[in-house]
Amino acid sequence: MNKALRHVSVVGLVMFALLFGSTSYVQFFAAQSLSEHELNNRTIIDELSRERGPILVDGTPVAYSVPTDSTYEFQRTYGADSLPAEQYAGLTGYFSVVSGASGLERTENGLLSGTDDALFYDKVRSIFTGEQPMGAAVELTIDPAAQSAAYQGLGGQKGAVAAIDPKTGRVLALASTPGWDPNALASHDSEQAQGAYNSLIDDPDNPAYNRAIGGNLYPPGSTFKIITAAAALESGDYTKDSELEGPAELDLPETSATIRNSGGGSCGAGDSITLQQSLVVSCNTSFAQLGMDVGGDALEEQARKFGFGQDLTIPLRVTPSSFPGELNAPQTAQSALGQFEVRATPLQMAMVSAGVANDGVVMRPQLIDNVRNSRTLDSISELKPQEFSRAVSSDSAEQLTDMMVEQVNSGTGQVAQIPGAEVGGKTGTAQHAEGAAPHAWFTSFAKTEDDQEVAVAVVVESGGSAGSEASGARVAGPIAKNVMEAVING
Fold first, then answer.
1. DSSP code, position 476
2. Which of 10, 24, 411, 439 has the CB geometry, 3.0–4.6 Å to 280, for a possible disulfide?
């Protein structure tokens, strides 16, 4: 009998200990994360009972709260007359009573809701005044003219544009199409909000993807030749004037496959061409051979220095671009052309052009310019330019600059020429699926004598309206030019 009682007592004590431990964990350790979880409806109700801070572009709110008479005291609203909600949805995201938050509404929730520790003194002040604490105002780095040029340039095509300031890393444009309207998801009508969310997620065109920084990554095609050229220059065995072979066809070792040039002929007189001229005319055979000569490891390392494979938040999370490892010779040749399993975001390819333009230094892209107290307008934090990496030496950057400028002056990128500006660029046409039209790419930079600079990358999926007739110069180049002009002429 005593043994049975002892057994029951032990079981009871263990159960009590487990119950006490679990409740203590929830009370003291998990309470904060559970309270702040985006699907906690009580949290949503609490946050909508106070004024959420605005998200601003050039001083104009693209996300803000307005008073209502409903259970939720404030209605989240998106867009402005001059800044349509669809153009900024990939940045702002949504704040919904049924599906939580996305985009900057999620990553900056603590600041926007007023719960962040940076707003401690404002929260203390509200205790004495009885006023509800207000969320902070988050000002973005976006140039509205550049964002509009990017979005309008893409039009009804699926694609994306990223533009950054090479010297500071400020993100000047980040457009993704098709766009979508977050206002329907922010509705206080739960049924309407849920329906809008379902429509967004179920749309076969995937508008919820921010194609500029994530979603399904793209093979960068010939825009990757900038990185291949950089690896060659950094090896010390090549200069921009080094002679390469540029035959009409290149037989790949270990296979019966060949690589051909887009025009069908050889590159240069007598099948010989300089590294610079090879980039200017986008010679496939010379770059494929160059990639094999430099080697897959050197290509992978050079890609990493520009940002491939590295985690990045701006504060939106950027899906890492990728370069495959352990390549055989044919795979190395294809990868040197931005094909095989090479994948990149438009932001990554804008970082490549920015690094070349900035003397070989890639600055960390940043989307938030400053954060201010909504009541006092005091600055809580401001953007501080940060170096992301030194991708290439100053000498290599100078040579790459010359090569990219010549590509625009006399090569396949002439469509991007801008009077009064030095423009460098690289076109790309990327195969991605059998029978599908290629993706059209263009990455570039522009500089003016008065120190205006911008780097841009554009991708249009499956050639857009041009279909199988698409090329980077024809489809993506004009969009890049318009974005660069919007920045340097703004």
1. I
2. 411
Q: Which of 46, 170, 40, 54 is nearest to 105 (CA)?
A: 54
- At a CB cut-off of 8 Å and minimum separation 6, what does 384 contact? none
Structure tokens at 233: 């220059």
Task: Give the whole-angstrom CA distance, residue 287 versus residue 134.
Answer: 56
* Distance (Å, whole) CA 69 – CA 367: 34
Burial class (CB in 10 A: 0-12, 13-18, 19+), 53: buried
Q: Half-sphere exposure of 316 toward its Cβ, with a 13 Å CA cutoff?
A: 26
381 catalytic residue (yes or no): no
pLDDT digits (tens, 9 = 90+) for 103-126: 999 999 999 998 888 765 555 555
* pLDDT tens string 252-300: 998 999 999 988 889 987 779 999 999 999 999 999 999 999 999 999 9
Q: What is the dihedral of CA 282, 404, 362, 317, to 10 degrees?
A: -50
Question: Six-digit token pair at 155?
Answer: 């039009």
**Among candidates 58, 273, 282, 256, which has minimal Cα distance to 173?**
58
Q: Tokens 């490892």 appear where?
A: 325
CB 323 within 8 A of CB 342: yes
CA 379, distance to chain mean position in Å, is 26
Instruction: Please tell me the predicted confidence (pLDDT) of residue 128.
Output: 46
